[in-house]
Amino acid sequence: MIGLGTHGTLHANTATVYPHDTYWHLSAAGRTADAQTPPRRDQRRRSYAERRPEQLGGAVLVAATILRAAMWEIRSVRYSSLAGRVPVPALCRAFDGAGEAVLAAAGHYRASRREHAFRRLVQHWIRNADRALTPWFTHRLRDIADRPQTSDSTRAWVSALTPAATELSQPDRKPGHRPPAQAELRLASYSAAHTRYGTVREPSSVVNLALPPRPRDAADGPWRLYAIEIKNTSRFRLTTAAFNGPSRPLAVGDPETARSLSLHDNALSVSAEA
């Protein structure tokens, strides 16, 4: 979907257009279709005995909370502004085999053995995770310990798991404020100012760049993604030449407060209002 605001022109050699009208049902054609479409028949639902969901607690709840947080973290990469900022490889390595491990821990009949198995599982995740994930685990464990519904025994155990070195730096999710020497364009998006969903949004742009391996990494290592968001965008210019391989980007500001970015002699040119 391409939104051009109240004014805008899109030039292309060929295009396929799929109209999307959220108010079509109010048009004459929509009302006619509704009148001719028979109503859905109510299907009888099979009645099941009401079952209350089992309340999790102890190490079971800790393991479930941490694993869900990791799944949400990985899922967030679908947002282009977070590309390259989520330590997906480290999280995948830390929770490798988690499905089978959870089922094995839950298979104990006695509650005490089940609690002990889940404690060992959580400790295994923390012990075998990359050092860069230490702040990630620390934040989740402290959040669990601060919840009023957490039992005293679980809180004491979680507090003991929380690493003492809380001053460890966050995972290296961005290459720093210095513009990279080489980058290849992977995505460029522009959103005009709008009031959808009842909130006023200023015009903004998101650019995803692929960067070569860092000097400390292997020369034949994989490239990494790097997201730059330019808020209050006043200029957005893009031609296909911007995708012609690597180029030296010219940027002003860091990824969080970038003011402008250009690639391939302004084949991509994005800037914010002064």
Explain what this protein looks like in three dimensions.
With 274 residues, the protein is of the alpha+beta class. The chain is built from 7 helices and 7 strands. It has helices at residues 28-36, 58-75, 88-94, 98-106, 111-128, 134-145, 152-161, and strands at residues 184-191, 204-211, 224-231, 233-238, 250-252, 260-263, 268-272.
SSE layout:
Layout: H1 28-36, H2 58-75, H3 88-94, H4 98-106, H5 111-128, H6 134-145, H7 152-161, E1 184-191, E2 204-211, E3 224-231, E4 233-238, E5 250-252, E6 260-263, E7 268-272
Antiparallel strand pairs: 1-2, 2-3, 4-7, 5-6, 6-7
Helix pairs in contact: 2-5, 2-6, 4-5, 6-7
Please, how many helices? 7
> Order of helices and strands, N to C?
HHHHHHHEEEEEEE
Structural class: alpha+beta
The radius of gyration over CA amounts to: 25 Å
- Cα end-to-end separation: 29 Å
Tell me how many strands there are. Answer: 7
Side-by-side strand order of the widest sheet: 4-7-6-5
What proportion of the residues is helical, as a percent range?
25-40%
Bin the strand percentage. 15-25%
Main sheet overview:
4 strands, antiparallel
Short description:
The protein has 274 residues and is of the alpha+beta class.
